[in-house]
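In response to the reviewer comment on reproducibility (Comment 2.3), we provide here a single inverse folding case reported in full, input and output, so that an independent group could reproduce the run without further information from us. The structure tokens appear first.
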């Protein structure tokens, strides 16, 4: 058994014992080429959204994706597999969907979205307890009470309040992957229309993205709290 798999199994065990999970935590890693794939990972056999891939991994599947398998171009842009589509980046798409009062307001928000700037070849997805690689980000889909426990685990060690960053847009891609990946932190998100419709994130679920830099602190906090 690899040391990464052992660590991830421990993380998964601690999270499951302390957090009210609705599915498995998901490990994700950006890669620069096929040579970086661990053994046993096959290309996902369909074209779906990033958030749908996260949901599939949360239900037990493991696989990898390149840009060719990413249906949602905004999601693929947020996680670093392509440039952000121009009409998403400039706010026009969200204005056309009735999300903003005018284009200036839409542009103000899209300029603040979390987007991985470097370009990668692909992404590996796996349930945390089966991931034999060091994840860039671990996502936990849970009810709000589980989010509370994870927030408490961070506060336990830092004494700082949580400052989540989300906008009801690009949740599992931007908020829960790109944000912790870029910031090296933890981010909480309430989902978006896309993830709730396409990835079946339930009305009573939220998602927390935990960076590689923060996972040990979160696990230690969970273990230490009463």
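Designed residues, in position order:
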């Amino acid at each position: 058994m690899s040391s990464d798999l052992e660590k991830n199994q421990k993380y998964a065990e601690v999270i499951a014992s302390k957090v009210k999970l609705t599915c498995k935590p998901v490990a994700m890693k950006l890669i620069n080429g096929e040579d970086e794939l661990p053994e046993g990972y096959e290309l996902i056999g369909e074209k779906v959204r990033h958030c749908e891939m996260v949901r599939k991994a949360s239900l037990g599947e493991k696989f990898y994706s390149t840009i060719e398998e990413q249906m949602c171009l905004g999601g693929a842009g947020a996680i670093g597999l392509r440039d952000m589509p121009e009409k998403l980046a400039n706010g026009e798409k969200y204005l056309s969907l009735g999300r903003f009062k005018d284009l200036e307001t839409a542009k103000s928000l899209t300029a603040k979205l979390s987007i991985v700037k470097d370009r990668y070849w692909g992404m590996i997805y796996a349930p945390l307890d089966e991931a034999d690689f060091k994840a860039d980000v671990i996502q936990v889909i849970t009810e709000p009470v589980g989010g509370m426990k994870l927030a408490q685990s961070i506060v336990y060690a830092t004494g700082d309040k949580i400052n989540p960053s989300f906008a009801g847009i690009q949740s599992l891609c931007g908020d829960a992957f790109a944000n912790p990946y870029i910031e090296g932190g933890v981010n909480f998100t309430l989902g978006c229309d896309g993830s709730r419709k396409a990835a079946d994130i339930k009305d009573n679920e939220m998602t927390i993205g935990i960076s590689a830099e923060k996972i040990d602190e979160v696990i230690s906090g969970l273990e230490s709290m009463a």
